[in-house]
Write a structure and sequence with these properties.
The chain has 111 residues and is an all-alpha fold. It has one domain (17-100). It has 3 helices and no strands. It has helices at 8-11, 19-41, 56-106. Helix 2 (19-41) packs antiparallel against helix 3. It is elongated and about 85 Å long.
Amino acid sequence: MDEPLIDPATAGDVAKCEPQALLDVAGKLTRELLPQLEAARYQVPDLSPAAAGDWDIAQGYAGTVVRARLATCDSLAFVMEQVQRVVDDLAATAGTVLDADQRAGAAPRKE
């Protein structure tokens, strides 16, 4: 994921991206990024309800920690949805290009 798909030094004014490159990126996002995001949702630390004891300030802190944990999980879920949309869009774009290439190849040639 660290290597650029298009080398700006050699691309010139027009940059082309092969459909397979789009599918490769979609595959890497699916295999490498989405599982890490999913795992992170379950690695957000939680404070046990008994940890605060009966101190008012500590109980307020415990409530803040719980809300922060829920907000973090919600944020991770949102990021996962967005990454999945990118994956779907990459795959759809690659499919559209491949379909157009097949149709163009099957079309009668003009002379």
